[in-house]
Amino acid sequence: MNRLLIIILAITVSLTAILTAAVEPQYTLTSADQTFLDDLERCNYRYFEEAAHPQSGMIADRHRTDNTDSFKASSVAATGFGLTAHAIAASRGWISKDEAVARCRRILTFMRDKGQHEHGFFYQYLNMQSGRRDGLAPASSIDQALFLAGALTAAAAFPDTDIPGLAATLYDRTDWKWMCNRDDSICHGWTPEGKFLNGRWNSYSEMMIMLVLAIGSNTHPMEPYTWEAWGRHPIKEFKGEKYVNCPPLFVHQYSHAYFDFRKWHDGILDYWRNSQISTRAQIDYMKRLAVKYPEQLGHYSDDLWGITASDGPHDYMDWGAPYPDPRLLPWRGIDGTLVPSAPGGSLAICPEPSLRTLRFQRERYGDKIYGRYGFANAYNPRTGWVSPYCLAIDTGITLLMAENLRSEFVWNTFMTHPVAKRAITRIQFKPVPTQP
Known about the structure:
44% helix, mainly alpha, Glycosyltransferase, 11% strand, globular, 16 helices
């Protein structure tokens, strides 16, 4: 795609822009909310302590809820969440600053020296002991971005240590232009067997944090105009507000854990409000499913909602709602399962409904679904099935968004890093006007 076509596309997108002044109602945390969140966060962080490899510090992709076994490979994204988690833990006083720095240093040094990569991009899954590629995992662009977001957050949290230098080494060697493979959008990944993957990050997705990092690079930057080139679609409407509909809820959460879209806009789309509407639209959709399919889904309600990509009773599922095409409703595997990380990742986005369902779920189902690391990855109240695992990325997004709701720590830390500031300048983000 040439630059002229990209500019034309950007203009077209701008003409159909969705900018709104609507906001989610202000919510003030109660003392009971604070108590619940404090326990949830502390349990979530325990995952990043106990699922960490003792030598490399890398975080297991999944870990049994009873702490009896761990996946033998780490996902790079999971380790990025782990770096952020260590910074949160120090800010909360769960561990000392020295211990947090030591844990971050262990990870970053190991990744620098032993993590297998291609042009700076780590393979999605790495053996936690050797750092070598696990199976046929690709060198993954989005996993790299989530790892780097965590590394830069740790760097900003501990500026007077060697963490910033270690993080910079890993960030600066990431060759974003190479991963574009002679185009203006980033490939999903690369494998030695099949070379570049066919998929590209050229439509609305969780990739916004990746583009922020790629455009903010000093060594291999993408051009600023590529921010405008990707598609903001499909556009749907919910209760009179237009929004970009993308069913899996994690898509609307991951970038927002780091980049503070509440305060910055590009003149094309209100990304923060889009995530709020997406959360509300899912709740409404699940309630409608409960009415239409009472035997299978009748428990879905304001008190019991939340699906996103997660474990299922038989396989990993790419759950989401609502779907753009009503002919797909309600199937695609929706079977009554609930995924606590769906409202967990929306804690800072839509606090009231997210807290309501998470507190209700814990009160109703107790230690069947809530234990050492907080919530199990997924469960089905109708069948009694409960996943025996917690997943690092789902536990991680819950921890990060819970902390953003309480203190804005991750936002306030990441946004101070020079990379975030460079990206704001290059993309020409503007401050969001203060709401009266």
